[in-house]
DNA sequence: GCGATACTGAAGTATTCACTTAACTATTTT
DNA sequence: AAAATAGTTAAGTGAATACTTCAGTATCGC
């Protein structure tokens, strides 16, 4: 479920926007309300809510409404899934380079 | 330079598309030509070239043309930058949760 | 040199995005 | 109860995306 391509789509797409990454940075320092997330951003509150919905749909953020304030927090599981995907590919490539290096070193010795 | 928001934009945006992620998966197993990248994808070669240009512009992939074939390879540095950004945010959040846990454990003992 | 191969580029199109404004709903505060 | 606060929703707009097809341009193999 965490490796569902559609879910990864949503997560990477969510992280592709600078405003949303800024919101994630804010949330990495602790939970925040919608207005608190909006404060440093040069856009309407409405736009922020829309960004927030994208983040929530991607699973990167979860929210909970108490009274009139919606409190948002990071969902580390989802973040880990995105991280994991990247890591796998990078490692596969780097292991390949290592093997290639070993191979070259060996064949060099054999001359 | 690796933490340039614009560069991160390009990288996450590049990874947001399933076709491009599939191309990255193929490349993580070794260099490939444009046609080899295109082979498993249900779209025109032209579309693949366009995706490839997105990947290259993001820095995630570098290419080199010899004769008539363009060979593509993963650029692990860029991949590491994206990974790093995610990791930082996740760790910040998880450390926060840990501190909170410690705090709750302490105050509980004090009763 | 001639045909096949491996791309490349331009133009067009349908869809999706990132906003905006404006009108509205629920909760507190006074 | 009235006014302020916090957020939501809908509709619209301009720009960016993800393709397509078609018409190229270099190699390469014979």
Q: What's the alpha carbon Rg of chain A, rounded to whole Å?
A: 20 Å
Biggest sheet character of chain A? 3 strands, antiparallel
CATH fold call of chain A: Arc Repressor Mutant, subunit A
Oligomeric nature of the chains: homodimer
Number of strands of chain A: 3
Strand order, sheet with most strands of chain A: 1-3-2
Strand content of chain A: 5-15%
* Helical/strand content category of chain A: alpha+beta
Short account of what is shown:
2 copies of one chain form a homodimer. The first copy, chain A, has 111 residues and is of the alpha+beta class.
Describe the 3D structure:
Two copies of one chain form a homodimer. By secondary structure, the first copy, chain A, is an alpha+beta fold. Chain A has one domain (about 5-110): Arc Repressor Mutant, subunit A, CATH 1.10.10.10. Chain A has helices at about 5-15, 20-30, 35-40, 45-60, 75-110; strands spanning about 30-35, 60-65, 70-75. Chain A is elongated, with a radius of gyration of 20 Å. Chain A starts with a helix and ends with a helix. The interface of A and B includes residues 8, 13, 16 and 87 of A. Chain B binds a DNA duplex (30 and 30 nucleotides) through helix 4.
């Amino acid at each position: 479920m965490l490796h569902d391509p559609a879910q990864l789509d949503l997560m990477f797409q969510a992280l592709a926007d600078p405003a949303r990454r800024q919101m994630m940075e804010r949330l990495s320092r602790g939970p925040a309300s919608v207005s608190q997330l909006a404060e440093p951003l040069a856009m309407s509150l409405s736009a922020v809510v829309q960004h927030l919905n994208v983040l929530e749909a991607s699973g990167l953020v979860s929210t909970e409404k108490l009274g009139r304030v919606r409190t948002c927090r990071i969902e580390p599981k989802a973040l880990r899934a995105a991280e994991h995907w990247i890591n796998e590919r990078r490692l596969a490539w780097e292991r390949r380079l290592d093997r290639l290096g070993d191979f070259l070193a060996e064949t060099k010795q054999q001359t």
